[in-house]
Amino acid sequence: MKQIKTLENCIQSIIALEPCYGPKGGNTTRIYTRQGEVIEDNRRLKTILNRFLKYYGYDLVELRKNYKNYLGCGQCVPLPVSHYLVLVPLKMRHPLVENDGASGYVSVADVLKICEEDSLDTDQRIKCRIHLNGGLSMPCCFTRQVIEKRLNQGRLALDRYRLLHNQAGIHRQQPLVIAEQVRNGPDLYEKINTISSFLYQLLADVRI
Question: Rounded distance, CA 77 to CA 51, Å?
């Protein structure tokens, strides 16, 4: 891990943000990149998220409001920022105090698989580990079913983003689901879920 003072050198490759407590107990952020780096930043996740969205030209409050109304969801609103990138909020820790925050964000396109944790080997509050591009993984306090529901909400939000910007599928850097994920799925359930997500993506693109 390495310390950075700005996000400019990695902002285009960010695939996840995780809230955590630093060595002195303060709120810090883990930044996960597509190159397999995990960078510790001593700022709060909300600060990092706002800077990230500003880079793409968005305001957090307005973006949440727009997609909250469209999806009819509560506080856990997906944040699409380009034709290929949408971040979904997931509970990643149990905060020590209420205002510390529990949610991190993960890029839907960079989720490879979701593995349920053995409660005998880990904190029982951590239900799953989410495996990402770059050989990384991160904890999540949600069940596998809840995570998959949130990822699908993210795909719906991305579908909406493409409709609004009228460039669906153009210059997309990578698909939401890649063939390698289907081949390497760890079990039948995982493969069914991956194929379903792929079919949703295909139908969404055709409809657009």
Answer: 18
Burial of 40 (0-12, 13-18, 19+ CB in 10 A): middle
Whether pTM > 0.85 for this model: the answer is no
Which residue in 142, 93, 89, 77 sits closest to 115, CA to CA? Answer: 142
- What is the spatial distance between Cα 43 and Cα 106, in angstroms, rounded to a whole number? 18
Q: What is the pLDDT of residues 43-100, one digit of tens each?
A: 999 999 999 999 999 999 999 999 998 888 877 899 999 999 999 999 998 878 777 7
CA distance 133 to 117: 19
Yes or no: say if 35 and 134 are a contact pair by the CB < 8 Å rule: yes
Alpha-carbon gap, residue 181 to 186, rounded angstroms: 9
Backbone torsion region of residue 27, taken as left when φ is above 0, otherwise alpha when ψ lies between -120 and 50, otherwise beta: beta
* Residue 107, beta-bridge partner list: 87
Rounded-to-integer distance, Cα 135 and Cα 147, Å: 19
Assigned token pair, 45: 């996740």
Output the 3-class SS for 49-66: HHHHHHHCCCCHHHHHHH
Greatest distance between any 2 Cα atoms in the chain: 51
pLDDT in tens, 123-149: 668 899 999 999 999 999 999 999 999
- CA–CA dist 192, 88 (Å, integer): 21
